[in-house]
Amino acid sequence: MSSLLCCSTAMCVAIFLLQLRSFGVSLSHPYRIIHLPGQPNVEFNHFSGYVNVDDKNNKALFFYFVEAQQDSVSKPLVLWLNGGPGCSSIGVGAFSENGPFRPKGEGLVRNQFSWNTEANMLYLESPIGVGFSYSTDTSSYGGVNDKITARDNLIFLQNWFVQFPQYRNRSLFIVGESYAGHYVPQLAELMLQFNKKEKLFNLKGIALGNPVLEFSADFNSRAEFFWSHGLISDLTYKMFTSVCNYSRYVREYYNGAVSPVCSSVMSQVSTETSRFVDKYDVTLDVCISSVFSQTKILNPKQVTETIDVCVEDETVNYLNRKDVQSALHARLVGVQRWTPCSNVLDYDLHDLEIPTITVVGKLVKAGIPVLVYSGDQDSVIPLTGSRTLVHQLAKELRMNTTVPYRVWFQKQQVGGWTQVYGNILSFATVRGASHEAPFSQPERSLVLFKSFLEGRPLPEEF
Ligand SMILES: *[C@@H]1O[C@H](CO)[C@@H](O)[C@H](O)[C@H]1NC(C)=O
Ligand SMILES: *[C@@H]1O[C@H](CO)[C@@H](O)[C@H](O)[C@H]1NC(C)=O
Ligand SMILES: *[C@@H]1O[C@H](CO)[C@@H](O)[C@H](O)[C@H]1NC(C)=O
Which residues lie with the beta carbon below 6 Å from any ligand 1 atom? Predict the structure, then answer.
């Protein structure tokens, strides 16, 4: 193949130099990935490795950076963060949702709807203890909280810009999902503070998918979602909204003292909803091998699905291969295996109750565009809570509706619904999408992402 394109060594060198200039990042960059095992040939560069986030070099965060497929120099930089707290932006975000590849069998296949068609994508495993990120002082895994996470993420980016100086001034967006409803606004707020001293972050907007923004509104919308989708009975719905609601249960749970009433309500809820329904998408089939992963019962002959519901298992297998880790410049420090969500991180769950919708309000007031979007099949952080929170915020800030609640289109089908306030605060649903919207509705999510980057309302017609 390559001999067809390059007839002589001199020509190869010329092509190399051309690429060097057009990409901006040197091909001999120490973080550059030469080739991932089983990876199809691609026209863009990707990079990964560690960036230290403290002076003593105890703490290092791992990133995977994928340049845009075409014309990376003119495309924005997007930082992507998954939630948890404690889940991996590389395993979940890059390899299951919107990255360029999906693990399949022994190798990787291309994701046609990868977000690097529109942007340079930076996936960060954060905080320490998540994925390949580590601290050599394991005591620092205890009591990690929102404040520490935001500060470490800020320091990460500052230091990352030293390694990738050509991205310093690039339009920057931060996008995240789930508990990143805490990480993203908090990091954005720190950036604006930092910019007052030194204008480093060219922040152009944030987007939050099925985000945790306000404890009570987000967690208590679950009951109605279960009930309206037929997952629980009328009687159980009544108990789940009067006897013990979900926010009370969660609070009791992380305080280590679940009351007998909450325990009995939750056990009824779990029995009726069944573990064979994916709470992150009540319409999607579950990956049987994941459900039974403890007992190792496999069902290899599942009905073929267009969405590979077992992608998480494939990712775990792939990222635990030694050849893959070595190609990624990754190492396991203090853990035996790479896991999608951390087993060593001890996050302070009291921070769940910090309302970040107020931080979103501050960002909007500072002129930063915000998009809150919801995969509408998710029962974990349902669209109803997010929609109410955005609407209330707009009201508080006295912002008028600039795009009335309406459908938006992807090709000739309805991709979801949207509403925009004051041309700066947007809400959108993604129809038929899970908690991880780009995983289950990749094409619709890409339309949403493109509109967000361009600062345009979602397509009104087809
Ligand atoms: C960043 O942009 C500003 C204004 O557009 C310019 O003055 C500055 O030189 C740029 N810095 C870098 C490192 O390119
Ligand atoms: C949930 O329960 C708590 C504690 O019982 C209560 O204070 C709160 O108002 C309830 N929230 C909703 C939305 O029902
Ligand atoms: C919002 O709409 C009202 C009524 O049309 C108008 O009086 C007000 O000026 C608008 N506010 C803004 C911020 O545009």
Answer: 168-169
Q: Which two tokens stand for residue 139?
A: 């005591």
Q: State the SS3 of 322-348.
A: HHHHHHCCCCCCCCCCCCCECCCCEEC
Angle, helices 260-273 vs 246-254, to 10°: value is 120
Per-residue three-class SS string for 17-58: HHHHHHHCCCCCCCCECCCCCCCCCCCCCEEEEEEECCCCCC
Which ligand is in closest contact with the Cα of 246? 2
Chain segment 104-163, per-residue pLDDT in tens: 988 999 999 999 999 999 999 999 999 999 999 989 999 999 999 999 999 999 999 999
Pocket of ligand 2 contains residue 220 by CB under 6 Å: yes
Long-range contacts of 401-407 (CB under 8 A, 24+ apart): 403/457, 406/460
Question: Could you tell which of 169, 171, 204 is best to mutate to test the pocket of ligand 1, judged by most ligand atoms within 8 Å of the CB?
Answer: 169
Q: Are 457 and 444 in contact (CB under 8 A)?
A: no
pLDDT in tens, 22-39: 456 777 899 999 999 999
Query: Ligand 3 centre from 400 Cα, in Å?
Result: 6
Query: Among 98, 143, 132, which Cα is nearest to 448's?
Result: 98
Helices H / strands E in the chain, number of each: 15, 15
β-bridge partners, 79:
122, 174
Q: What CATH number does the domain located at 31-214+351-454 have?
A: 3.40.50.1820
Which ligand 1 atom sits closest to the C-alpha of 165?
13
Atom of ligand 1 nearest to the CA of 168: 13
68/161 Cα distance (integer angstroms): 17
C-alpha 221/C-alpha 246 separation (Å) is 9
Strand partners, 208: 176, 372
Q: Which ligand is nearest to the CA of 200?
A: 1
Rounded to two decimals, what is the model's pTM?
0.89
Closest CA to 389 of 429, 355, 351: 355
Sole residue written with tokens 């780009």: 438
Tell the residue nearest (CA) to atom 9 of ligand 1.
Answer: 169
The pairing of strands 203-209 and 172-177 is parallel
Domain ranges of the chain: 1-29, 31-214+351-454
Instruction: State the DSSP code for 166.
Output: G
Task: Please identify every residue annotated as catalytic.
Answer: 178, 378, 435
Which residue is closest in CA terms to ligand 1's atom 6? 169
Say if residue 85 is preceded by a cis peptide, omega within 30 of 0. Answer: yes
> What is the whole-number distance in angstroms between the Cα of residue 162 and the centre of ligand 1?
15
- The more confident residue out of 17 and 311 is 311
To 10 degrees, what angle do helices 234-242 and 260-273 make? 150
